[in-house]
């Protein structure tokens, strides 16, 4: 007989072999190319708000998480900053080896293309 989880404890679900991307619908394989807890699409980099901590699948929100930026961790590893469109939570997710380089670079240069001031003020 299996022990029952404590009352109020969340059951840890088993990762499905794949899930559809919340943004573009492409199949996403959870365990692939440099990550054990993938929760973002390798094509559009959108994610789903499923974790409170990496891999715990304990978040109740379930909202779509938009990739809003990239940053470089200590040691040079890139990570994606996601913001939940439902609750506003922000999370950092390491990139995977098959993530779209074009989308990653476009996130990295986005601040240069959308500065917080008019570009015509440069050079004056």
What do you see in this structure?
This protein has 124 residues and is of the alpha+beta class. The longest helix has 13 residues, at 101-113. It is built from one helix and six strands; from the N terminus they run E-E-E-E-E-E-H. It starts with 18 loop residues before the first strand and ends in an 11-residue tail after the last helix. Strands 3-4-5-6 form a four-stranded antiparallel sheet, covered by helices on one side. Strands 1-2 form a two-stranded antiparallel ribbon. Strand 1 and strand 2 (27-28) form a beta hairpin. The model is unreliable at 7-12 (pLDDT under 50).
- Indicate the structural class: alpha+beta
N→C terminal distance: 76 Å
Mean pLDDT: 83
Please count the helical segments: 1
Order of helices and strands: EEEEEEH
What fraction of residues sit in β-strands? 15-25%
Instruction: Tell me the helix content.
Output: 10-25%
How many DSSP-defined strands?
6
Q: Strands across the major sheet, in which order?
A: 3-4-5-6
Rg value: 17 Å
Shape: globular
Please summarize the sheet with the most strands: 4 strands, antiparallel
In terms of quaternary structure, the protein is single chain
- Low-pLDDT segments: 7-12
